[in-house]
């Protein structure tokens, strides 16, 4: 039975990802993210004995990390069977790891489609050994905002109402708060945007199908999309989101989440009142107590 809080039909999502793999997946976005993630990990001056790749749809991360010398053993965790190296068939929402069993957890373009992201982050933090690292990339914020707007305009005009056509994506500030809520130390959430250009809105939708990223919302409209709505969407998209050369823009905003499992060696904020020098002295101003007013 589906939880009342569930947003995504996970069974349908996995089926569409499997179809994309069978038909030849579109991997440019995932490969781009995997390369960036490998670069970010390369700035961390340490090695990791046991790492887990959480839910990444392909072996893109394993290929990106190969030969880097950072990771001794990588375990892939996903719903898709097969793949090279060590692999566990499991869901990102029910990780199979014992507490304090991993040195590193990484994930690329998977966590945006879990129904319980706070729970998934808590599971990852618990699976990390003290001072273990999590580094994850997921779609957020303004991803596919152009497609979302074009569909909303078309459905309002043609059908007199709206239905969810594009999945919602979390706000970056909310993701930062979730890291703190999950108990990560030194949490950091930042994002960058990748603008991909296409010849038509239909080419965008073909790529989304090839990524296994078409609509898997539980509240999606179950009736087939009307041709009139689809054609009007394409018109709105071209009118509003085309460049001077006629090509269309599609935004992918990628959130980067970094957090460490707490450890006593990590830097901690100073306690109130522990400063060795007053702020007023540093600024060259007169200190005013909370009971005084400026000018008294």
Write the layout of secondary structure elements.
Layout: H1 10-23, H2 28-42, E1 48-54, H3 60-65, E2 71-78, E3 86-89, E4 102-108, H4 117-127, E5 128-140, H5 145-158, H6 172-181, E6 185-198, H7 201-210, H8 227-240, E7 248-260, H9 279-283
Parallel strand pairs: 1-2, 1-4, 2-3, 4-5
Antiparallel strand pairs: 5-7, 6-7
Helix pairs in contact: 5-8
How would you describe this structure to a colleague?
The chain contains 9 helices and 7 strands. Helix 4 links the parallel strand 4 (102-108) and strand 5. It has a single domain (10-262), classed as Rossmann fold, CATH 3.40.50.150. The chain is of the alpha/beta class and 296 residues long. The longest helix is centred in the N-terminal third of the chain and has 15 residues, at 28-42. The protein has a 7-stranded mixed β-sheet with strand order 3-2-1-4-5-7-6, sandwiched between helices. The chain has helices spanning 10-23, 28-42, 60-65, 117-127, 145-158, 172-181, 201-210, 227-240, 279-283; strands at 48-54, 71-78, 86-89, 102-108, 128-140, 185-198, 248-260. The mean pLDDT is 87.
Beta-strand portion reads 15-25%
Low-confidence spans = none
Largest sheet: 7 strands, mixed
Strand order of the largest sheet: 3-2-1-4-5-7-6
N-to-C CA distance: 68 Å
Helix content: 25-40%
Q: SSE order in H/E notation?
A: HHEHEEEHEHHEHHEH
User: What is the SS-derived class?
Assistant: alpha/beta
């Amino acid at each position: 039975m589906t939880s009342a809080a569930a947003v995504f039909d996970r069974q349908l999502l996995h089926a569409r990802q499997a179809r994309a793999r069978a038909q030849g997946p579109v991997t440019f976005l995932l490969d781009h993210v995997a390369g960036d993630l490998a670069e970010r990990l390369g700035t961390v001056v340490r090695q990791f004995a046991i790492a887990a790749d959480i839910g990444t749809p392909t072996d893109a991360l394993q290929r990106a990390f190969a030969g880097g010398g950072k990771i001794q053993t990588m375990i892939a965790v996903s719903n898709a069977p097969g793949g090279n190296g060590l692999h566990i068939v499991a869901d990102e929402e029910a990780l199979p790891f014992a507490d304090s069993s991993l040195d590193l957890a990484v994930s690329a373009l998977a966590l945006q489609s879990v129904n319980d992201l706070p729970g998934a982050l808590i599971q990852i933090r618990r699976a990390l050994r003290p001072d273990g690292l999590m580094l994850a990339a997921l779609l957020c914020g303004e991803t596919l905002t152009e497609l979302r707007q074009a569909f909303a305009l078309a459905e309002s005009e043609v059908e007199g109402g709206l239905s969810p056509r594009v999945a919602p994506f979390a706000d970056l500030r909310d993701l930062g708060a979730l890291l703190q809520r999950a108990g990560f130390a030194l949490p950091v959430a930042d994002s960058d945007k990748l603008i991909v250009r296409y010849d038509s809105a239909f080419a965008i939708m073909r790529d989304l199908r090839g990524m296994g990223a078409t609509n898997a919302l539980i509240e999606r409209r179950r009736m087939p999309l009307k041709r009139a709505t689809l054609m009007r969407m394409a018109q709105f998209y071209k009118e509003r989101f085309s460049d001077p050369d006629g090509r269309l823009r599609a935004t992918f905003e990628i959130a980067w989440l970094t957090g460490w499992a707490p450890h006593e060696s990590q830097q901690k904020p100073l306690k109130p009142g522990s400063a060795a020098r007053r702020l007023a002295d540093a600024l060259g101003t007169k200190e005013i107590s909370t009971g005084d007013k400026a000018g008294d």
